[in-house]
Specification:
This protein is mostly helical. Helices cover about 55% and strands about 5% of the residues. Helix 1 packs antiparallel against helix 4. It is globular.
Length: about 180
């Protein structure tokens, strides 16, 4: 399996897990969804917003790297977040609609990537105004690992509320091989 194919798989996995985490979070009351539970981004909703902020920031950087990719065009309508803890969406239903759109952009973009693209450098500046020049494929992988990390925090918060998130294993969506 090529690196590009693995990134497509990760994008599809993240979409599935995002759908499941939103579904589980929708069972919480608004008060519980926004309650400071002592997590790094405090609440379930704030943590979900942080995940989306990370995705938006990275996808906007990727669109500068590769402006001719049609799948990234919807990003032009999304404003760049001002901080890593900004609440983009205070309503989980609106958040869900935007999460679905963004996940589709990510999946479509991963399908358009080539293995040659993944070996090219990505120059970007972070929130601390530090300049970096990293291999694109490595940074794309980070985007997915960032989601996994923070979704793990949300599943812990949901567990504390008595909500069983269920299956999170990647092999659930890994295609079967024929011998």
């Amino acid at each position: 399996m090529s690196e590009q194919s693995q990134l497509v798989l990760m994008a599809e996995y993240n979409r599935l897990m995002n759908q499941r985490i939103i579904k589980a979070s929708l069972t919480l009351s608004d008060a519980s969804l926004n309650e400071d539970k002592g997590a790094f981004f405090k609440s379930v909703l704030a943590t979900l917003n942080h995940i989306m902020i990370g995705d938006i920031l990275w996808m906007k950087r990727f669109s500068e790297f590769s402006s001719n990719v049609s799948s990234l065009m919807p990003l032009s309508a999304i404003e760049k977040p001002e901080s890593l803890d900004q609440i983009l969406f205070s309503d989980l239903k609106t958040f869900e609609q935007e999460r679905v759109r963004l996940d589709n952009v990510i999946i479509n973009w991963c399908h358009e990537l080539t293995n040659e693209d993944l070996d090219k450098p990505l120059a970007y500046t972070n929130f601390k105004r530090e300049k970096h020049n990293k291999r694109l494929g490595d940074v794309v992988l980070h985007v997915f690992l960032h989601q996994v990390h923070h979704r793990g925090q949300v599943t812990t918060l949901l567990s504390q509320e008595g909500i069983d998130f269920g299956e999170t294993d990647l092999p659930e969506i890994v295609p079967e091989m024929t011998c």
